[in-house]
Every structure is written in C-alpha cells, then in structure tokens.
C-alpha cells in the first residue's frame, strides 16, 4: 500500500513537467528508444516510466486539452492515463503503438467522465455552459434542447443513405456489420458514411463556435432521450 501511495505521489510530481521548462535530463531521456523504455517499464523501473512520460506526455496533454479545453482537466487525464500505464506495466507489449495505447486509455477516461456527468442534468447543463462560454457565435442562453434541435437539423441535411447509416450507428448503437446486411452495402461503405458525417457535423459545429467535444457529448445522450426515425 505504501509503495502504491509513493508511486501516486511520484506521478503527481512528474505532472509538473507541463509547468516547467524542459531540462537537459529530459532531453537526454527522449533519446532512449521506445522499446528499451517499454522493456524497462515491464520490469517496473521508475526511470523507464519517467522516460516514457517525458517523451509522450506533451502530446497526450495537447490531445486531451483539444478535447476538454481545460488545462486542469487535461492534466488530470494525463496523470490518470499514466497511472493506468503503470498498473498494466507487465503486460504492455513492445510490438504495438505506445502512442495509440495512450490515446485509447485517455479517450476511455474522457468518455467515462462524460457518461457520469450525463446522469445528472444539472451537471450536464453546467458542462455545456463551460464548453461554450468562450464562444462568440453561440449564446450562453441557448439550452441543451436548442443544441439537440440544431444537431437534428444538420442530420436531416445529410444524403438519405448517410443519414440512415448515421442514425443506426451513432444513435441506435447498431453494429456496422448488421447495418451493412440490412442495407445491402459493405462495411467499408458504413465506415465511409460515418467518417463523412462526423466531419460534416464537426465543421458545422466549429462554424457555430462550439467545441467538437460538445458534439460527441450530445450524440452520446441523444439515443437515450429520443428514438430515431426508421427509414422504410
């Protein structure tokens, strides 16, 4: 128990990297190969963990900040992500992409956080106000229902097949292979429609001065609030 507590303190201290200038020691640690660092991590070496942290935490921080628009929240995600990395240190492989692993863990943490927030309407409304408060084009007086209405309007403007695929995949939670079978199209076409639809929605929300994380947050809740129309 004492070791785990000490390690948490260690991670908390390392997080200060984001608030300090890069030292020569940090630069040197970046020269270590990823494979060597991961092997050291597998063996439980704190020096290897720190080397990976120094190498990847700036990228992970930027990735998290772009989604959350909050310095404190982004730092929390970075810290929690690397704590999970340490917890899984013995099973992390040298053959995969460590950067992709970090982003996957961070995204899961962010999704979990938003799912918890969505259970309480007051917290959800507070979150939306925080996310749009810096917007010049979107009024703070606009409600969550207004956002839902805007998103519905944008979805309705999509081509018919894309709209249907989007509703089934994103709002009803159907699997791509099931949608492909029902619509007699390929799974690749399903992926194409979803990619195009999400790009379109992100661009439209950006034009309104609304963060893309708001879009993802609303999509995660739309299926719970209303049943999508079924195309015949």
Automatic annotation (TrEMBL):
MF term (GO), any: sigma factor activity
Keywords assigned by UniProt, alphabetized: Coiled coil, Sigma factor, Transcription, Transcription regulation
UniProt domain RNA polymerase sigma-70 region: residue ranges: 52-114
InterPro entries: RNA_pol_sigma-70-like (IPR039425), RNA_pol_sigma-70_dom (IPR014284), RNA_pol_sigma70_r2 (IPR007627), RNA_pol_sigma70_r4_t2 (IPR013249), RNA_pol_sigma_r2 (IPR013325), RNA_pol_sigma_r3/r4-like (IPR013324), WH-like_DNA-bd_sf (IPR036388)
Coiled coil segments of this chain: 137-164
Pfam families cross-referenced by the UniProt entry: Sigma70_r2, Sigma70_r4_2
Span of domain RNA polymerase sigma factor 70 region 4 type: 149-201
Domain of life: Bacteria
Biological processes annotated in GO: DNA-templated transcription initiation
Family indicated by similarity: Belongs to the sigma-70 factor family. ECF subfamily.
Stated name of the protein: Sigma-70 family RNA polymerase sigma factor
Organism whose genome encodes this protein: Maribellus luteus
């Amino acid at each position: 128990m004492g070791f785990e507590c000490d390690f948490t303190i260690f991670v908390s201290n390392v997080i200060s990297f984001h608030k300090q200038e890069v030292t020569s020691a940090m630069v040197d640690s970046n020269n270590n190969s990823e494979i060597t660092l991961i092997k050291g991590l597998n063996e439980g070496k704190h020096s290897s963990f720190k080397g990976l942290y120094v190498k990847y935490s700036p990228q992970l921080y930027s990735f998290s900040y772009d989604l959350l628009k909050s310095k404190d929240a982004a730092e929390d995600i970075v810290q929690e992500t690397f704590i999970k990395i340490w917890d899984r240190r013995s099973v992390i492989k040298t053959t995969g992409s460590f950067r992709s692993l970090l982003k996957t863990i961070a995204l899961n943490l962010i999704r979990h956080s938003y799912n918890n927030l969505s259970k309480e309407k007051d917290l959800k409304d507070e979150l939306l106000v925080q996310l749009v408060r810096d917007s010049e084009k979107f009024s703070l007086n606009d409600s969550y229902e207004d956002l839902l209405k805007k998103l519905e309007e944008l979805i309705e403007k999509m081509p018919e097949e894309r709209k249907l695929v989007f509703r089934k995949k994103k709002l009803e939670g159907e699997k791509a292979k099931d949608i492909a079978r029902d619509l007699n199209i390929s799974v690749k076409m399903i992926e194409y429609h979803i990619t195009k639809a999400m790009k379109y929605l992100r661009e439209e929300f950006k034009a309104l001065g609304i963060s893309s994380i708001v879009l993802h947050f609303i999509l995660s809740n739309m299926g719970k609030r209303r049943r999508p129309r079924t195309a015949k």
